[in-house]
Amino acid sequence: MVNEFSDVELWRNFKNGDVKSLDHIARSYYLSLFQYGLSKGYSRELVEDSIQDLFITLWDSRQSLSQVSHVKSYLFLALRHRLNRTNLNNQRQKTWLDKIFSSSISEDSHENMLVYNENNNQIHREIKSVISYLAPRQKEMVQLKFYENFDNDRIAEIMGISKQGVANLLVRTLKDLKKVWKQLHTFFI
Fold first, then answer.
1. Is residue 69 domain-shared with residue 11, that is, in the same domain?
2. Which pLDDT belongs to residue 131?
């Protein structure tokens, strides 16, 4: 059964022509890839098309692909490159957290939407407000580190910077978040 295999085994099986393994990989990472694409500021349609094209390209070139040890980070990097190539001249839409929250809420069932209470909504608004002050690279860092739980090595690979660059950007991002948080809460007190 497909669920019993690790990502590396699924990748190996997919490379050997097992379409069910690729389907399992796609289903496992679609939502994370989708939210990542939205977090970069791309339109919903472009992200959906890019993810679909990514998996079609993977299938078509499966025999020439190398074995990967980190399937999730490979997919994120491949999607990032595809979006950057595809969308060089398109304008970005909305702020990234608006897109993440609107997409995740629309994906949730009606029951889950009822579970959200006013406290959670207030926390989301505050976090969204604080993160909106960050630079685009810092927003990407927050998405990869705290929403996707990538380690610094994977983040360096995805963002195309050194591991030390990731550490420096993370420290700068956390300092900026703390500074903005204090300013906003001092203002409202």
1. yes
2. 85
